[in-house]
Amino acid sequence: MPIKVLITDDDILIREGLKIILQNDERFEVTACVENGLQAIQYCESQKVDIALLDVRMPVMDGLQASREISEKTTVKPLILTTFDDDDFILTAVKNGSRGYLLKNSSPDRIMDAIKMVYEGGIVMQDSVMKKIREELVTNPKVKIAEDLFSDREMDIIKLISKGLANREIAKKLYVSEGTVKNYITSILNKTGLEHRTQIAIYYLTGSKS
């Protein structure tokens, strides 16, 4: 079954270009193209969507706010695709539940691989974006998380989530089933009060839950 993708961008050329690229690959189905974050939320609440591609700057509602509301209100996974590599945008996107942050100058293959990885539960960050996150960690040194709160296996999973691995990849590395990985992630979320795996990664990398 193809991955159902919603494209959200106020530039019609971008929308139509992405639509053509994705529809030429049988792994994807573009269910709709919308012009702003509010339309994206409304669509995700009423239709079956797996991945919501979101630009950052759009009229009516930007992609950062839309990402937060889509994460809170639906099971759709937001993925930012934008021209802006602004530090604040990147960190806000991740904190708001975005499962990835890619720049529009990425190759079509890179974008399609990212959509597939996010669909499978992974986190995707472009190299230049990861560089900015690393620079942020150097500027603001990491506060250690309360590791004694977690079992050794839970810490293994937290570290692998922070590397962007999907459940399937974590299961393979740890020689356990995907169901077992999901159970551990549920336990981690319950212990931390966090809501999704992206927040687990940020918690591990920064020591902050906010």
TrEMBL record:
Give the Pfam families listed for this entry.
GerE, Response_reg
Q: Which CDD domains match?
A: LuxR_C_like (cd06170), REC_NarL-like (cd17535)
SMART domains from the xrefs? HTH_LUXR (SM00421), REC (SM00448)
Domain annotation Response regulatory: ranges? 4-119
**Domain of life here?**
Bacteria
* UniProt keyword annotations, A-Z: DNA-binding, Phosphoprotein, Transcription, Transcription regulation
Residues bearing the modification 4-aspartylphosphate: D55
Residue ranges constituting the HTH luxR-type domain according to the UniProt record: 143-208
Cell cycle listed as a keyword: no
Q: What does this protein do?
A: May play the central regulatory role in sporulation. It may be an element of the effector pathway responsible for the activation of sporulation genes in response to nutritional stress. Spo0A may act in concert with spo0H (a sigma factor) to control the expression of some genes that are critical to the sporulation process.
Protein name, entry field: Stage 0 sporulation protein A homolog
Record organism? Dehalobacter restrictus (strain DSM 9455 / PER-K23)
